[in-house]
Each structure stands twice: as structure tokens, then as C-alpha cells.
Design brief:
The protein is of the alpha+beta class. Helix content is about 30%, strand content about 30%.
Length: about 220
């Protein structure tokens, strides 16, 4: 995937200066401008990082940066400086990023709350994303996450079917569940593995059970 990013500049006019004249033509037509430089991603402004001030005569068209004008004109620009604030949309990308991170954080927290509820009341067909290395004692340093599916729930134990696929990250297993790969007949091994509820509680508390998903 290509990500287009970089920097751009934008000019914003202020009010015509009332206390000084154009150094080129002498008219009372000097207008201050703020030049904001900002980062963008896919041309969406993210955050301004530099501000420069300039003036332009609307009569003769000549323009100067703040440091190139007379002290009187520079002082007039400084008085107008407070009104030359960056518009809110220059922070649009940062605002979108904050909203996205808040959404991701809430979604993860909501799934965590759901996992707590599902663990407290297990039912057949619940899917557990687990660390195979801890629960099955499999010595596989790379692809050591997988999916358990509850097959039977007893008074003191839970019996699972074990997924045939290993994943590098719990998120990869979550993707497989979203794509319904676990719904294919060959996804799970034949037979069961059984754990006591006390064992599962220890695994859950130690976060070897990464997530529990209950398909609706």
C-alpha cells in the first residue's frame, strides 16, 4: 500500500493594516498574510509545524516577508498577529487520528469485556484464541497462536477441538475467524482436548487465552 505524505504551505489573509502604508506605492492597502507550513497524509492536513508572516499591497501588488519591512510595518504586523490563528481544518488529520485511536481502544476494550463475560459462562461453539505453546506445550516459537472451539462443557471441565493452523499473532487468528475459515470441516482436528475449569482460569488470568469470541 502506498502512503502519500509530505509538507505543503497555505496562505491566510488578515485585516488591512490601518497604521502604516505600503513602502512601494505609499497607499493604505497593506494586508498581512500568515503562511502556514503543515504535514499532510494523502493531502489531508495533519498539523502545522511552521508559521511565517508577510504583507502584500493590494494596490501595487508588491509583497514582503515580515523581516524585510520597516520597523513600523513590522510592529503593525505584530499587533495583527493575534488574529492570525491557524484554521481548525489544518488539524483535521490529527483529529481523525485521535478519533481512530479512540475507536480502536474502545473496540479492544469492548472485546475484552465480552471475553470476560464469555469465560464466566462458557457455551458450546465458543472460540478461544490461545497460546498453543502454553496450553498444548508445543515448541513452536513462531506460529504458536491458534483457535480452540468448545465441544462440550462439563461441571468441572471444558472439552475443546483444536484448530489445525498456527498463527504468528493473535490478530491473525482473529482474522481467520472473521473470514469464517474456522467454519470449514477440515479446520479442526478430530478428537478433543480437555482442561479443568481451574486450569482454564489460570490460563485466562495469565493471558494465555487471548480472546473469546461467541458467534451470534
Amino acid at each position: 500500500m502506498f502512503v502519500f505524505f509530505g509538507t505543503r504551505s497555505k496562505l491566510f489573509p488578515g485585516n488591512t493594516l490601518q497604521s502604516t502604508t505600503c513602502e512601494g506605492c505609499g497607499s493604505w492597502a497593506l494586508k498581512p498574510y500568515t503562511i502556514y507550513k503543515y504535514f499532510h497524509v494523502f493531502w489531508v492536513p495533519c498539523v502545522p509545524f511552521k508559521k511565517e508572516l508577510a504583507v502584500k499591497c493590494t494596490h501595487c501588488g508588491r509583497a514582503w516577508r515580515q523581516n524585510d519591512v520597516s520597523p513600523a510595518t513590522r510592529a503593525a504586523i505584530e499587533r495583527e498577529k493575534k488574529s492570525l490563528k491557524p484554521p481548525a481544518y489544518l488539524f483535521a488529520g490529527a483529529f481523525i487520528l485521535v478519533l481512530f485511536l479512540a475507536y480502536v481502544g474502545y473496540s479492544n476494550r469492548a472485546e475484552s469485556w465480552a471475553s470476560d463475560r464469555y469465560f464466566a459462562s462458557p457455551v458450546v461453539d465458543d472460540l478461544y484464541i490461545v497460546d498453543y505453546g502454553e496450553l498444548l506445550k508445543i515448541d513452536e516459537p513462531e506460529y504458536h497462536y491458534g483457535v480452540f472451539k468448545i465441544n462440550r462443557v462439563g461441571a468441572d471441565s471444558i472439552r475443546f477441538r483444536v484448530g489445525t493452523y498456527g498463527y504468528r499473532h493473535p490478530g491473525d487468528a482473529r482474522t481467520a475467524i472473521k473470514k469464517d475459515n474456522v467454519g470449514t470441516p477440515e479446520y479442526f482436528y478430530e478428537g478433543e482436548v480437555a482442561f479443568s475449569k481451574a486450569e482454564m482460569l489460570a490460563f485466562f488470568d495469565e493471558r494465555h487465552v487471548k480472546k473469546i469470541i461467541r458467534e451470534k
